[in-house]
Write a structure and sequence with these properties.
mainly beta; Glucose Permease (Domain IIA); Coagulation Factor XIII, Chain A, domain 1; 4 domains; flat; Chondroitinase Ac, Chain A, domain 3; 8% helix; six-stranded antiparallel sheet; 40% strand
Length: 573
């Protein structure tokens, strides 16, 4: 049960949350021009993902527009403006263009294959001048002006894309916030209301990381979802609700995130969100908007109809509350939930709810757990680790279990530090220092820090301080120190060393036994040669920098421990 101290903290959280909600009230009063932007492709819009769709660690921040399973469809400027920014990256949006428009908006186009000729040449000249494929730079207003409907690029599949499509965003140029493009009148026929898969309640006397979601069985009557019993009874006087839901439209087989939800108790609004107008800096708060643990375990996305104490995202209506339902009597209460999309297609849930003391259930936490509170720094030490979380790390009180187990291999130079587990989110980077076994100084620069979080692995070099290796991660799970003396390796893909190359591209695969490649450099006959990057693959497209004849290609690659390999390939073009 709640102690007096915890009750006072929860009151503080409720007041803090109310202030955050009120500070974001202007977001609900905005309207957007309906005929300013045309569609960015010359084909009817079909979506593969919408704005605000739930993803682990981020909301989807734009529209993924299908390109008929093809690459190299022409992309057009949706309004007058100028090319304001270019970004080229291995992951993320790959090759991306940003256009600034005089009406106060910036549009973004990701996963492109190539740009219009003048811009492509400008970019390529800069890449060779910098001897750097990755780019991230602004452009002056007068350099590349564009008109509405002007060709700007070809669509593609670059960066962190799993298939051909165009990623399209609309941003507020002044604030940098991303806006929901479906509020701008783009032609996407939609007469389908959100789809409901499940309704759940949480015992909010406890943290969401302690209490498990309890399902509420539903049936549909006269177009409205309701409980399959006359009254839903809970054993807690303090609960919140969550829903599993998706949306659809009339022109795509894909399912999307839900734009709007509102919850009422006895006719009074208790909670409301609209997925619009927030920034990349705050998109990680998606982990506070859904049952992250449930998602990581089963890929079922239960979206909270409540605001966790550490959730600072400003998508919540100022006239609502934090979503906590206080059932301090034995009365029967009317609950109504409305789920809707941008076209105001609505799904309704309505049922009766009652608190019954006799149904109460108590939860316990592990005896060795350390309760990490919200809005406060939390520092934890073990025999061989020091861990520091700042005041923004957690969204709700977290009973965190931290312990050590012995090394399992000769390559492992420390115990494994088990920091919670991968099914609990942490908002920002925490610092961890690990003490290695006794080693000689000449090997210190070959020790790396590894985090295994579920199925993902992150390896970093870290920094030495007073005999401890320190690093930063933004996921929980198992951390250990490893000796890394093995350099990366490169291999030809689709061609052999010494071969005659007749294709338009030259592909290499470059990998390391631990983590990603840190740096990659290619020299053709001693001169820098530009390779594009996607995952572990490095691709050169033949151009004027490789004339017909015999050539020597040297590849230099390094890893997190600064192990460097140099390999030489020969080919004839």
């Amino acid at each position: 049960m709640l102690t007096f101290e915890l009750i006072m903290k929860r009151i503080f959280y409720i007041i803090t949350t109310a202030i955050l909600i009120l500070s974001g009230s202007y977001l609900f009063a905005q309207s957007y021009p309906q005929d300013y932007f045309r569609d960015p492709l010359g084909i009817p819009i079909q979506l593969a993902a919408n704005f605000g769709e739930l993803r682990p660690n981020h909301f989807h921040m734009g529209l993924d527009i299908r390109t008929q399973s093809r690459e190299n469809l022409p992309v057009y400027a949706p309004a007058d403006g100028f090319i304001a920014h270019i970004k080229i990256e291995k992951y993320g949006y790959g090759r991306a263009i940003y256009i600034k428009h005089p009406a106060g908006y910036t549009t973004v186009y990701g996963h492109l294959n190539s740009f219009f000729p003048a811009l492509e040449k400008y970019l390529k000249d800069k890449q060779y001048q910098d001897e750097q494929w990755e780019q991230n730079f602004d452009l002056p207003e007068n350099l590349f002006p564009v008109k509405k409907g002007q060709f700007i690029a070809f669509s593609g599949n670059t960066g962190g894309s799993a298939g051909p499509h165009l990623h399209f965003e609309i941003r507020d140029s002044k604030t940098g916030n991303n806006l929901n493009p479906l509020l701008f009148g783009l032609n996407v026929p939609d007469h389908i209301a959100p789809i409901l898969y499940g309704l759940y309640w949480y015992d909010r006397r406890y943290s969401v990381y302690t209490a498990q979601p309890q399902p509420i069985a539903l049936i549909k009557k006269n177009g409205v979802f309701t409980s399959n019993v006359p009254v839903v009874k809970t054993g807690s006087p303090l609960i919140t609700l969550g829903v599993r839901m998706e949306d659809m439209n009339n022109v795509s087989p894909f399912k999307f995130g839900v734009y709007h939800a509102a919850m009422y108790m006895d006719g009074a609004l208790k909670f409301e969100f609209k997925i619009n107008n927030f920034s990349y800096d705050s998109t990680r708060y998606v982990n506070a908007c859904m049952d992250y643990s449930k998602w990581m375990k089963s890929k079922q996305g239960i979206q909270y109809l409540s605001i966790l104490p550490g959730n600072k995202l400003k998508i919540f209506t100022p006239t609502g509350g934090d979503g906590t339902l206080r059932l301090n009597d034995s009365s029967v209460h009317d609950i109504r939930i409305e789920l809707s999309d941008e076209k105001n297609n609505i799904t309704v849930i309505a049922f009766k709810l009652q608190y019954v003391l006799a149904l109460g259930k108590d939860y316990t936490i592990p005896n060795n757990a350390i309760v990490c509170d919200v809005h406060e720094p939390n520092n934890i030490t073990t025999a061989n680790s020091k861990i520091a979380f700042d005041e923004n790390a957690f969204y709700d009180a977290l009973p965190l279990v931290v312990y050590e187990t012995a090394s399992t291999s000769t390559r492992q130079l420390s115990p494994t530090i088990h920091v919670g587990d991968y099914t609990v989110p942490v908002h920002d980077y925490y610092n961890i220092a690990v003490k290695p076994a006794i080693i000689s100084n000449d090997k210190k620069d070959k020790i790396v820090m590894e985090l295994k979080s579920g199925t993902s692995t992150k390896v970093i070099a870290g920094l030495w301080k007073d005999g401890w290796l320190t690093g930063n991660f933004n996921k929980l799970d198992d951390v250990r120190l490893l000796l890394d003396t093995i350099a990366p390796k490169a291999e030809a893909v689709g061609w052999n060393n010494g071969a005659v190359i007749k294709s338009k591209i030259l592909t290499l695969k470059c990998t390391d036994d631990l983590g990603d490649i840190e740096t990659f450099k290619a020299l053709l006959d001693g001169k820098w040669l530009m390779f594009a990057k996607k995952n572990d693959y490095f691709i050169y497209t033949f151009d004027e920098h490789c004339l017909p004849g015999k050539h020597e290609l040297t590849i230099i690659a390094t890893d997190a421990a600064n192990n460097t390999s140099m390999q030489t390939f020969n080919f004839i073009k």
